[in-house]
Amino acid sequence: MAAAEEGVSLNHISRESTDIKRLADFYQQIFGFEEVESPKFGEFKVVWLRLPTSSLYLHLIERNPSNNLPEGPWSAASPVKDPSHLPRGHHLCFSVPNFQSFLQTLKDKGIETFEKSLPNGKVKQVFFFDPDGNGLEVASKEDSS
């Protein structure tokens, strides 16, 4: 192992948004992220969130209004909001201990989803989008039996 690889861990993921408050509310309600103190950058606003059960941070950054790119990527395979394309598209994945309860939360909130399982059937997956069209996956914890 190269010296540069020792102790490497994921620190944060950034997402741009025209409405960082709406996006922060989504990640807090769906995944339980907590808002943490964030620096003041002056020319743009940020909201920093942390997942309490890990050291993963999510940095939500106010989108530059002069950026002409589309707000959300939808997925690499589809220009439309269709969660069935996400297994091969760009997405973040989280694992949850109670997959069925989490799935019910998504349904209760009216979030469109696409469900599947890994070929061995041990890991269930659900794919969906955040309010800005960023792809998300939630996987069940693998059954060790």
TrEMBL record:
VOC domain residues: 9-141
Pfam family, one: Glyoxalase
InterPro entries: Glyas_Bleomycin-R_OHBP_Dase, Glyas_Fos-R_dOase_dom, VOC_core
Designated name of the protein: VOC domain-containing protein
Taxonomy of the source species: Eukaryota, Viridiplantae, Streptophyta, Embryophyta, Tracheophyta
